[in-house]
Amino acid sequence: MIRTLALASLLALGPARPSIDDLDAHRTELRSLLDAIRAVESGHDDRAVGDDGQALGPYQIWNGYLTDAQDWCKALVGTHKDCHDRRFSERVMVAYWDRYVPRALADRDHEVLARTHNGGPKGSTKKATVGYWRKVQKHM
Fold first, then answer.
1. What is the CATH number of domain 17-138?
2. What pLDDT band is residue 15 in, cutting at 50, 70 and 90?
3. Res. 97: pLDDT tops 80
4. Domain assignments of the chain as residue spans, ordered by start
């Protein structure tokens, strides 16, 4: 009975949310992928603005993407304009991946991670993201 209650309590808490240190550890482990995505998204331009001002920074992050990441990782504090900062943007990406494709993040599945960045939570299943992945691969 006590074990059942303890397990129920853990399940009620939901999945563990990443800390800033967790995000930074992933950033280090995914450096080659992040650099390749940055090359494709902005040509390594931290001040890049795209999609009529909706996509900001080296990774061209939209406000909705940022909001999803921050809803998942409460320690990730900043505004959409902060996406011009490479470290902040990378933390946003890792938090987003941790929320939507945690298995791919744990397995370092670069294709799923890149396609999710490009196409949203189900991006890795969309045909439209295959070409994006090929571009990223060329930069790795």
1. 1.10.530.10
2. confident
3. yes
4. 17-138
